[in-house]
Structures are given as structure tokens and as C-alpha cells.
Amino acid sequence: MFLPVIMSGGAGSRLWPVSRETLPKPFIELPDGGTLLQKTLQRAASLDGVERVLTVTNKEYYFLTRDEYQVTGTPVAHDYLLEPVGRNTAPAVAAAARYAGGKYGEDTVLLVLPADHLIGNQETFSKAVAAATELARNGWLVTFGVEPVRPETGYGYIESGEKIGKTDAHKVARFVEKPDLQTAKEYIASGRFTWNSGMFCFTAGNMIAALREFAPEVLTSVEQTLQGSNPEITPVVLNEEIFALSPDISIDYAVMERSSKVAVIGADFDWSDIGSWSALAELVKPDARGNRINGETLLVDVDNCYIQSESRIVAGIGLDNLLVVDTPDALLVAHQSRAQDVKAVVKQLKLKSHATANYHRKVHRPWGTYTVLEEGNNFKIKRIEVKPGASLSLQMHHHRSEHWIVVSGMAKVVNGERELLVNKNESTYIPAGHKHRLENPGVLDLVMIEVQSGEYLGEDDIVRFQDNYGRVP
Amino acid sequence: MFLPVIMSGGAGSRLWPVSRETLPKPFIELPDGGTLLQKTLQRAASLDGVERVLTVTNKEYYFLTRDEYQVTGTPVAHDYLLEPVGRNTAPAVAAAARYAGGKYGEDTVLLVLPADHLIGNQETFSKAVAAATELARNGWLVTFGVEPVRPETGYGYIESGEKIGKTDAHKVARFVEKPDLQTAKEYIASGRFTWNSGMFCFTAGNMIAALREFAPEVLTSVEQTLQGSNPEITPVVLNEEIFALSPDISIDYAVMERSSKVAVIGADFDWSDIGSWSALAELVKPDARGNRINGETLLVDVDNCYIQSESRIVAGIGLDNLLVVDTPDALLVAHQSRAQDVKAVVKQLKLKSHATANYHRKVHRPWGTYTVLEEGNNFKIKRIEVKPGASLSLQMHHHRSEHWIVVSGMAKVVNGERELLVNKNESTYIPAGHKHRLENPGVLDLVMIEVQSGEYLGEDDIVRFQDNYGRVP
């Protein structure tokens, strides 16, 4: 069996203000409308013989991930391993190998695909994967080395050693983390170095054996967290207390750099880690003056700028080499040469506990989304969108009452002792202290405007009685 | 009698996106929270012996002007002349002179103050006005010449001629419009030239006589539009058809450049026409790196920038000499050296009939304001604020129904045949076709959220039956 393993973590703070902890890089909408996560799934599903995919992600992203996958309409089955806390790649890979080995057999070939980069050429990718699969079946732990196109100092490099038999692959001589510029230039000149793409291919059994030899404490804690969970029931939520005991190390460091059975396959496909706004900008076709635009603009003497705006018009005059990224609650204006420093901004915002460091105004929930449209003195207005068939928890608020007005679709509402249907252009009122529940019984999205009124309007004023998504303590 | 005449027109398109046709330069909030119009009234009211002020403005700005004046709490009486269409300064000055001459006598001294500039030093201003009043009583038409501090090519200049008796004033030798840079430099070097501030002082009778001599067609059309209006009832709305016949010329061109009885008084007070974002930026104290900030920012290696934001955080990285002005629906990013070109942007927006060229999301009405919070498919959400004692028209919509939720204050509502009080945290529903009226009977502002629902939500779907502000056809 051949099983792609999609790993989606990574905040991508260099892509703030669009990428935030609650909607990180794999989930942000790219200029073509897709997301890195969607593209990763489609890429995996296009490979020969793929019938199911295993996704390892944080439990906070489970519903978001399912929604993303659903949008693609990709006809594959899904397994999920949900991490209770963010850990590095070694525990995630270990969990994937142990889970897949147990469920599908230790000779299952796993293809590990991080969901935070882009690959241009599916055909070359497929060929590289086929070659890697062959090597994996012969006992190799396979890495994919991307031909470097610039002396990048932010990536890891792989040095190729001797050729492996009649294949195009090489043994790995060594891994090097983020070299300085001079060293990076020498690497490129030597022709022996490639970028470490973070993708891997191996059998479950070989990875388990390697972990047992080189990182037994990672394997042990992962095995313990999987004990007692039923692999037939998906998603599998890893036990928080035990998983947190696993060392926070990368699979490169835990296994790849130590095993002598590691191969590198030249990855001859376009590869970008979309590591900054400059990288993302390259996905947009430039106009005659080198401007790349994603949104509504009016430009006078503007050159070589990237401008992205969700809903506002951006007027630019006399600008050169700037990045302008506009969102409903935060605006970024940066010189192109400083794209890496967006990370520093996010760090400072986190130190200040600024809401825009982690949260968007649109918040994703298992049942849909809500967006805060306005907050004022003792009132808050939200647009609430509920997916067909979905339902919020049966809940109650102590300090606020809520007016609900349906503007699209149909709502089924529990309001105290009553149960009623609220149609488009109808409203209902939920007094403070009333148990209530909102459900979308229809087949169209339900869009509702909620006006909250009360002395205290924090999200933590909620008592949940019943919930379809396991959120009742 | 001494009567300040405040003239407030002028779109101030160089201050877009804050200044727009529906809320032009005199009305925009400056960094200190005041407006040019408020400051002009306060400046006028602080002069010796001022008990009333005459305001000449477009009828569209009447209620807005009254609100602005009220905020200042300035204890002066008001006369208003409302222009039905935008004309240049000659018809406005003529109307002021004719109206004041008729109502208060032709020896009334008028001080014309455009509401689109700032004056730093009230004491020096008062002294200059006192000197001008003296000259006006002696038959002079007096201009105020500002000492030039740079070879500005965007202003008009006044060349001083011979000294007038024992005063500090001079006869005007000539007026020059917008010289080129070389000429402007020569003017400054000569010591004989000052900037034309646009302020004037004269008696009503002398101005009427000058108009009769040099611009009789302006005077005639203004006299005709005033005929039949009762000067005791304010505001006086000038007749549109007749007023539109008046030549569209400036008072400088119509009278000042032609009369031999024109004096110039050196205006030794700080004067700024707030003609661009660069000029407005100077009102904000710079930090150690030369940045002037009006809003929430997070800056890394940013120098000499002006950043203004109403509600969004602005992150800047590696910027120098930029203007960033952020509003709810439009963003401006411009190099400081290109501040004048904002005008070109507005021109292009107008050609495209882009809403942000003329309108803000917050719309001022005689009874208060409304702000569109969100528009979606078949729904629109507004925050409506009604001033104490104010009332919207009795009206009806054919195509939309409205949900009203009071979040602050108290509403008196006519809804079809019923009349009811709607308290904070209560709601009411107005079906399409129902006659309705909203009133704030209280002493606090009424804040209401309106959710409109319907196939057509244009502002023109309104039938007015009764209106306190003369808006019933």
C-alpha cells in the first residue's frame, strides 16, 4: 500500500497579516483562490494508486482541514491524527508511521508531504515519487532534494554522496542547516548540494526501526499516546499529557542525519516554500511596470510593488518595491527587501498580546464561521454562517441577550422551551439566561446577523449543554 | 457693525481619502480632534465685538455646518446663505455683501474668512483684523498678505505698492496667480510679494459699489436670487435657477484685480492652507525618527513617514518618506514628494464613478448619521445614530423590510398604524410597504442597528410623506 501523509502545521508568521495562528499558512487563500493545503491534497490524490490520505495536524485545525478538503471534491478516503499541542516533525512522522504500520501493515510506503509549500510540475513530481517508492521498498529512507536556484541562507541543504546502483538517486553524505551566504554560494558552485524540501518517502516499518534505533523516546511516547485509541475511528486525537512528553525535534535531526540508509532524489519540479510575501507575490503575473496586484487599486507612477487588498481600494502614488497587504483589521506596508522581517512584527504583536497576532475577525468553527462586524459600547454585531446540516451547541449566556435576523437560508432555533423555524427576513430574540440552539436544517448556507446586547460580551460567557463537536467539558 | 463671513466650500481633493465631496476639507477631523470649520468659527467669535456670524455655504452642508458649530459651544448668533450649486467666490461674496448690507446696513464691515485654512496666532490675527477694519471704514477693499516661507508655486501672490498714509498697509500693485518656481524665488527675494490668503475685509457698501462697477452681472444675479427671500428667516436658500446664471469667477478676478482702492495688510500670523497631506502632517509632532503618527502602528526601521489610521493597526517595515492614510473603504499610500498628486487620483476615481471619490461609509443627515457596516446578497446592515430630539421622515420602502434593534438610547417608532417606544435591547420589524418613522424622543443619542432585507436595497427606494428638514418634494 502507498499512503501520502499530509502534515499541516507551521504558523507562517512571515505571511502576516493574512496568515495568523488561527488560520496559518496552509489555509490562506492564494492569488488563484486555492490554498496550499488544498493543493497538497490534490497533488497527493493525483499520484498512482492513492485511495486514502493520512493527515497529521493540530486538533485546532481539524474542522478547517476537513472543510478545505471538501472544497476540492477529491475522491479519497481520510485518516486523521490530531496533535493536542504543536510539536516538531519527529513526533508527527513517528505517529504517522506507527498508526499506518498498525492499521495497514509495516510495508506500507509513506510519502510525507508538508502542506506549506507549492510544487509546479505534477508530472515530474509523480516521477520522483515513483523512484522514491522503489527505493523505500528497498529499505531506504528517501529525501527529495530541490535544485537550488539561488544561494538561499534560510533553507537546509543536502549533500549528495555516492550514486545508488543504477538509480538516479544518491546516498546522502550529510545535512547542513542554514549556511551563511558564502557557504551557500560554494554549495551551489559544487553541484553536489540540493535544498531539503521536507518531503520524505519510506515504509512504515523502516521508519519505526530507525526511530527505535536513533530516537527511541520519540517512538515510545507516540506508541503510548496511540495505545487505547481505536484506529478504525477517525479522527484519532493523541493524548495530550503523553504526547507532550515527546522530545520536540525534527525528523531530520532525530533520524535522517543519523541513519546510514538515507537517499536523496533530485527533485526537478518547481518548488517554492511561499516563505514570504515576496515568494507569494511571484504567483501573481506582473503588469508592464512590474506590479503584481491582487485586489482593487489605482496606481500613479508605481513600480515593482505587490499589492493585496480584500475589500478596500488602494491608491498608490510614486512607490517602488513595496509590499502592501490589507486586511479588515491590520495593514502591512513593507519594503520588498524586508519581507523576512514581517516575522519580527508578529513577534512584537504577540508580546503586546495584540489580537491581530493570532486572530482574524472571521473565526472558523466546526459548524461554520462568524465574523465580528462591529463592536460598540454594550453591543456587538456578528455575521454568522452555518453550514448545511450543521448545528451550534445548546448553550446559554449569563450577561448578553441576542437578536437573530436570518438574511439567507433557513434556521431551526431552540429558544428556551420553544422550537421554531426562522425564515429569511425573520428574526428571533434570545434573552439572557435562555437556553438556545441554532441549526441549519436546510441544504443552503444559513447567513444570520446577530446583534448582541449586554454589559459583558466576551466569548467566554457561554455555558454549553450539548455539542455535536465534543466541546462539552 | 462688524460681521465675519465664513465661506466654506472647496472639496480639498488632495486630502482624499478622508476629504470627499460629501465631507470636504473644512469638515474633516484634524489630528487635534477639531475641524477647520470649527476653528474658523472660534477664530471669528474671538474677535472684538462679534455677536453674529454670516456663513455662506452649499445647501448640502447646512446641517453638517450647524452640527459643527454646535460642538464648539460658541455663543454667537448665525445667519446662513445657502448656495444651491457650487460657484466661485465672487457670487458668494456678492451675496454676503448684498444680504448683510440690506439687513445690517451698508456700513457694516465684513471680514471674509475661508474655512479651509489654519491660523496659528490669534493675537496677531486680531491686530491685523483691527487694522483692516480701520482701512475698510476708510473705503479700502483690504486683502491679507502672508509672508512667504518658501517659493510656493501653487498660491497666488500679491505685490505691494506704495504705503498707505501712516498705516502698515500698502496699496496693491498687482495680483499674480501661481508663478513658476524661478519667478516665485524672485518674488521672495524682492521682499515685495506676499501670499494671497483669500481673506478680505471691506464694508458691504464699498463691495457692492465695486461689484456694480467691475462685475455688474454677478451683482445683478445675486440681487435677483435674494429678492423675495425674507432676510429675517434663516437660512436663506438662494434660488437655484437665477444663482446658476452668475458668472463662475473669483472675487480676486472680478473685483480685487480691477479696483484701484485695494490694500494689502501684512499677515504676520502662522498660516497654512492644509493644502495636502504633507501640510496636514505638520500638525502632528514628529517622533525621534521623524515619523508623525495618528493611529495605532508598529514600525520597524521607518523614518519620516506620516501614518494615519482610523481603526486598523498599521505595520511598517523599512519605509522612508511615505504617506499612509487608511479609512474604512479606501487606503492611500504615497511618496511624500507626491502629495499634490492625490488630486489626480480623485480625478480618476470620479471618472470611474467610484463611490470613494465622493462618499464615505458614514453618511451625514440632518437628523444624525448612518454608516453602512456591511452589504451582502439581499441584505444591508447599517448603524443609525439619531440626535436627541431629531426625527427621520415619515417614509415607506417598496422593496425592503427593516429590522431595527436599539443598542443605546430610546426610540419612538411609527410602524404602520402603531406607535411604540423601543428601548435599549428591544427590536421592531418594519415590513415592506409599511409607513414608518423613527424619532429620538430622549436626551441621549439613539444608536440603532438596522438590518435591511429585500431584492433591492438602493437608497432611492424611499417615499417620504412628512419631513422636518424640507425633504418632501
From TrEMBL, chains A, B:
What name appears for this protein in its UniProt entry? mannose-1-phosphate guanylyltransferase
Q: Which InterPro entries match?
A: GMPP_N, Man1P_GuaTrfase/Man6P_Isoase, Man6P_isomerase-2_C, ManC/GMP-like_b-helix, Mannose-6P_isomerase_type2, NTP_transferase_dom, Nucleotide-diphossugar_trans, RmlC-like_jellyroll
GO biological process terms held by the UniProt record:
GDP-mannose biosynthetic process; polysaccharide biosynthetic process
Assigned protein family: Belongs to the mannose-6-phosphate isomerase type 2 family.
Gene Ontology molecular function: GTP binding; isomerase activity; mannose-1-phosphate guanylyltransferase (GTP) activity
What Enzyme Commission number(s) does the record list for this chain? 2.7.7.13
Among CDD domains, the record links this protein to:
cupin_PMI_typeII_C, GDP-M1P_Guanylyltransferase
**Cross-referenced NCBIfam families, in alphabetical order?**
GMP_PMI
Where is the Nucleotidyl transferase domain positioned along the sequence?
A: 4-284
- State if Nucleotide-binding is listed as a keyword: yes
Q: Which domain of life is it from?
A: Bacteria
Q: Which reaction does it catalyse?
A: alpha-D-mannose 1-phosphate + GTP + H(+) = GDP-alpha-D-mannose + diphosphate
| Span of domain MannoseP isomerase/GMP-like beta-helix | 295-349
Which EC main class describes this enzyme? transferase
